[in-house]
Amino acid sequence: MKYEVKGDSLPVLSVQLDPGEEIICQSGAMSWMDPGIEMKTESGGLGKVFGRMVSGESMFTNRYVAKAGGEIAFASGFPGSIMAMEVTPDHPIIAQKGAFLASTTGVETSVYLQKKVGNMFFGGEGLIMQKFSGSGIVFLEVDGYAVEYNLEAGQSKTIDTGYLVMMDSTCNMEVVMIKGVKNVLFGGEGLFNTVVQGPGRIIVQSMPKEQLAALISSLIPSKN
Question: Which H or E run contains 222?
Fold first, then answer.
């Protein structure tokens, strides 16, 4: 299987499948494909359906099988980036809800729950994220521009709500309250930040959907 991400702010993932190769995507993600590729819609059982629902994905996945070689393409649903992340048995990754676009067949998707109570109730990244394990490549959608950091053991990065896309499973996530009454009331950053500590790789995004939606909403005149 060969793949290429084309485009800038409105990217598309182009995958060239050889006969017999397969790729999995969330329902409705396929944009165009050659006639030698067939679709099979799957649920994977009640547990996986529920897991996809609570993690922000569609209830079903589509498996595309190449009877003959050809191209299949998946366009991003939001202006931003598409990143290919390698997953191995020793290197699972954790990603934000709704980030999954497609994957090779060896990748397993499951729900990742925050371990700390504070993270559950106050974490900007939410109680529920997604865990990708197994072996293969998972393609993630990033809102805006993607910035990658490799954190050493003990090194950390403080991240505002919604900006964390992905982290290695070796990283630790913790929620901290912003210090200072004036900072909380007038700083415009809310009450809490997310601190991710290494070792491991993290990816942050420049324009979360929620931030863009809030900006657009603030510019719409009220009907008073």
Answer: none
